[in-house]
Amino acid sequence: MSIGFGIFLIALGAILSFAVSDALPGINLEMIGYILMAAGLVTALVSVIMTNRNRTVVARRTTTYDDGTDPSVGPDPHVGSHQRRRRRVGIRTPLRAPP
């Protein structure tokens, strides 16, 4: 929203600086237009910087087991150690011939 507000200030300042030819006693509309354009530029730049600063990428790797437990939580007392087999992703195990 602040990027849009910055663009609005730039447009309003450009209109006051370049398109309005009226004069008010004691008020320089051209200078007010330049000030509004500068404020709009600063507002838009700050909002772009703040938006990009909050975008961080976090990579997370998890290990899952066949029984669905998560090793970072700790061992499940209801599951025996013989039931916890680690699933290897991308490695194929050879098939055994039926007896």
From TrEMBL:
Keywords annotated in UniProt: Membrane, Transmembrane, Transmembrane helix
Query: What InterPro entries does the record tag this protein with?
Result: DUF6458
Q: Where are the transmembrane segments?
A: 31-51
Feature: compositional bias, Basic residues:
81-90
Q: Segment Disordered: which positions?
A: 62-99
> Which region is the signal sequence?
none
Q: Where is the DUF6458 domain?
A: 1-69
Q: Which superkingdom, per the lineage?
A: Bacteria
One Pfam family this chain carries?
DUF6458
Q: What is this protein called?
A: DUF6458 domain-containing protein
